[in-house]
Design goal:
The protein has 320 residues and is an alpha/beta fold. The longest helix has 20 residues. 42% of the residues lie in helices and 17% in strands.
Length: 320
């Protein structure tokens, strides 16, 4: 049984698996590995930094001849950043966390597919009206940033699928193996966008301590909050919180975000603690499916293993 969907047909890939364009960890080597394995790799470009693109895009080109794309943080970019990305001729550009409408036409003119990630139904309707080629429905189980008042993946994905049809929808959030992929395919999704599981692979650009934390982490150890954005001085919009593994500052400032924002001393304390090694230099972004991270395999093989696991899960379901 081949897992052929509207997404695999659109991009000519073997498996309905896409790499979440995680800033700082989804570099060129990981993007290439996912595409080489039959999925769709998305480079985590963030703000479209030209030095990052100049360093990482050649790694993609050397690592695969298969289609790949670039992901951007919509709130962090301008038109020039999009043009810089398009100069590298990606097959798709993905926009997350903000209004992508100012950039849609330039993506279309360049012949790239427009992928829009949405975290609630208002964003989903906007993506449909914008004519997105693919919509990513992100549930709150996902690691990293997502909606403060979003919905879980299981109830959210079918709503977006029904709204967007016939536009293919990828599910994101809490998917880390073939069973999760099979589940979202059964919900009507055309595939899955996967982050945490690919962050724990041989090619991911993460510190060994982060890899170890992901392997050891448990879903109940994750928490969604703005605390770590505030103490780091991050400009992330307040409507998007971040799911991370446990952290001392989460315990110290839980449910006290407004107080923390007004406390310059606390932010300096955080920097001092990082400098002396009392806390890790970066949060460990991790979704609720982190329990399924048991090692650091090569990403290309992981794509195929997920597809095989999904096929087996669907076969088992068909025998019920």
């Amino acid at each position: 049984m081949a897992l052929s969907t509207a997404f695999t047909k659109l991009f000519g890939v073997r498996h309905p698996v896409a790499l979440a364009p995680m800033g700082g960890s989804a570099g060129g080597a990981l993007t290439a590995a996912v595409s080489r394995g039959g999925g769709f790799g998305l480079l985590g470009s963030g703000d479209g930094d030209p030095d990052w693109l100049a360093r990482e895009v050649p790694l993609i080109r050397r690592g695969t001849a298969q289609p790949w794309g670039v992901g951007l943080l919509t709130w962090q970019i301008d038109a020039r950043a999009v043009e810089r990305v398009l100069e590298h001729r990606p097959r798709a550009v993905m926009f997350s966390f903000g209004d992508p409408s100012p950039y849609a036409e330039s993506v279309r003119r360049a012949g790239a597919a427009l992928i829009v990630q949405v975290t609630d139904m208002e964003e989903a309707r906007q993506a449909v009206d914008l004519g997105a080629d693919v919509i990513v429905a992100q549930g709150t189980e996902g690691g990293g940033h997502g909606a403060r008042h979003g919905r879980s993946t299981l109830p959210f994905v079918p709503l977006v699928v029904d709204l967007a049809a016939p536009v293919p929808v990828l599910a994101a959030g809490g998917i880390a193996d073939g069973r999760g992929l099979a589940a979202v395919l059964a919900l009507g999704a055309a595939g899955a966008l996967i982050g945490t599981r690919f962050q724990a692979t041989a090619e991911a650009l993460v510190h060994p301590s982060v890899s170890a934390a992901l392997v050891d982490g448990r879903g109940e150890d994750t928490e969604r909050s703005r605390v770590l954005d505030i103490v780091r001085g991050s400009r992330w919009p307040s409507r998007y919180t971040a799911r991370t593994l446990r952290h001392p500052y989460l315990d110290r400032w839980r449910d006290r975000e407004q107080e923390l924002e007004a406390d310059a001393r606390a932010r300096q304390d955080y920097q001092d603690d990082v400098a002396r090694g009392a806390v890790p230099p970066l949060p460990v972004w991790a979704g609720e499916a982190v329990d399924l991270v048991t090692g650091l395999p090569p990403a290309a093989g992981l794509v195929g293993a997920m597809a095989d696991g999904a096929e087996e899960a669907l076969r088992r379901a068909g025998r019920c």
